[in-house]
Amino acid sequence: MRRLRARREPGGRIIVTSTVRAQQGLLSAAALVLAACGSIPEPESFEVTTSSAVAAAGADAAAVQPGAGPGAGQAPPAGPAAVDPAAAGLEPRPPDGYVAPALVATDQGVLAGDTAALLSLPPPLATFHATRVVDDLVGGLLAQAVDPSPGVRGDVLWLPAERGQPTLVDGTGSTLLDAGYADGTPWAVVSRPSGEVVRIRLVDLVTAPLLTLDHDEQLLALSAAGSVHAVAVSDAECGQIRFHGTDGALVDLPAPAPPTCDVPRRPTFGAVALSSDGRQLAYTMVAYRDDGIEATTEVLVRDLTTGTDLVRRTVAREGEQITSLAYDNRRVIYLRQNRAGGPPTAELMELAGEERTAVLPLPPAAVVGSVSFARRSLTGGDS
Description:
Low-confidence stretches: 1-79, 85-90
Number of helices: 0
């Protein structure tokens, strides 16, 4: 794999050496000012400019661009890239004061809200049956549709901000993982039935490879923040978390250390969720009973600038699994499922200030597939 090295100077300029270079984007009429959200502790505020959300391919953007600049075509340097995590979250972000609503994918439509109420979104989302939904970072949604055939993975569809007809992004049985933002435009990140993970540019459906797992690895979860992707895998030991750039290159961020592995092939890491600014990572760690059933699951929040864990909380007990996780710098939202059956529980945990946890009011008869946060207003605007 090709490797790159980058650093970020005061003011937001990214200096990249070896085989890559950085390009500074220009504000267009539809460009969005990026403002860091609150965090634990609150991160340093910074601004980056970016091109329009639906800019043509090749438009300048505040993101690392591979394959150009001094050293292109030369042998790559040893070791993974050293990237300031603050440079990872270059997708458009909302203005200060925006509180991201929860998004819930169900077989009765896509819901949005908080612990007080979950409401159906306007048509066609009110009747759109989904197993997973994530915002596209520019006011719309990406969703994995429910397929009426048992055991068949539904299509991945894009529902843009203008609420037009859904656009087919992938109909090959792929699994929707997340939405990323690179090269000045949003991308869908999906896992193919073959196991290959690819990116699909929403504006024109151009596909680019992201990563291929080793033969003994299985993808557990992936989360994107701009051009960086956090990946949790199981392997011949007890799994690992690592970071990849848009071209699959390893990115040198302080991932949690591989755990001591008493029983191989029981993955210690489960879900991963990057904050939208790329500075923090929420992830789960699982402890098992002797028979392999989950004993407890904890969620941790790691500062990717310092490599220290800021938060550690128990979120699941014996026989429970965390099947979906999202993080917005101040809160985690997760879906907890009991192996014995029954409907899942969706909880939102406040981590900043006074910690508290509340249950989301899920529809009693709905089949819930995933939970996430709308990182931008779903109207496509700034409010």
